[in-house]
């Protein structure tokens, strides 16, 4: 009967069938076979399985020639310049109409945050001052506040990634005091209103002047305005815009019933983000050639007036909220309970039961605060 091989001597399952032999010679054979197998396995393959040569087309040869020549310059970007083929803000040479939008520099972001939070300037004034859209100004303030909170908590920021991005894309820098300020983006784009989607053919008599106010009423399905009132609004358009945007924005005329009730569509002069710029442009074209200093003075006064009106509106809203809120703070407690009387009726909840005038609209709506992929950035900053 053949001698059995001990288990501790077999170190490779790929060994051939072994005949009976002394244990010492078997150990030497096993060790030699294992070491040679590891050596051969660590060597890279010298030949591929396929013997077909890769096809070299003309376009492929030109691409390789370009990558070795002019294309090698784009392997590492130059700090402060875009790493595009055209070295401009056009990333695609075949599409000159597509341009890469710039981003705000760190200095400009910090200055915007300082103007809003420390100097208590309005978002509208900062938007006009630096040529940045009001929505972007609000987003910058929220993000900088979030960064400051992360620094206080000892969390790390992705600063190397931010520096690399700022070196490879167009950047709008903070202008020097004597330097002419360059606009970052258009700040007075007119948003498309849902009421203007349909195409309407509205007959008008030749003796009547049809303006933007009338067009807004037609789109809103509102009755035509009385001629006497319409002429008074047309006589002083600047005062009309001021009254709409500053004095009574909440008292805009409404049409419809129930859930179909909506405000009458305002003219484009009042719906743009910065209506005061229209008045400034009128003054610049009329008296700007002879009295440019007066035009600038009126512009600053108009901005200050809008800022004061906005602050007064916020104070009145806060006072109304405090009047209808009952605060209760138990003794020796760090919590304060606030109670507000609400009215739940058909008028407040609407047909669906989720009207914005009653708390019933929140019932049955899931909270997405802890769901993945949802933005956790604060929506506003109290300054």
UniProtKB/TrEMBL annotation:
Signal peptide: none
Pfam families named in the record: Bot1p
Stretches the record annotates as Disordered: 350-383
GO CC, alphabetical: mitochondrial small ribosomal subunit
Example GO BP: mitochondrial translation
Recorded GO MF terms: structural constituent of ribosome
Protein name (Swiss-Prot/TrEMBL): Ribosomal protein S35, mitochondrial
Native species: Aspergillus aculeatus (strain ATCC 16872 / CBS 172.66 / WB 5094)
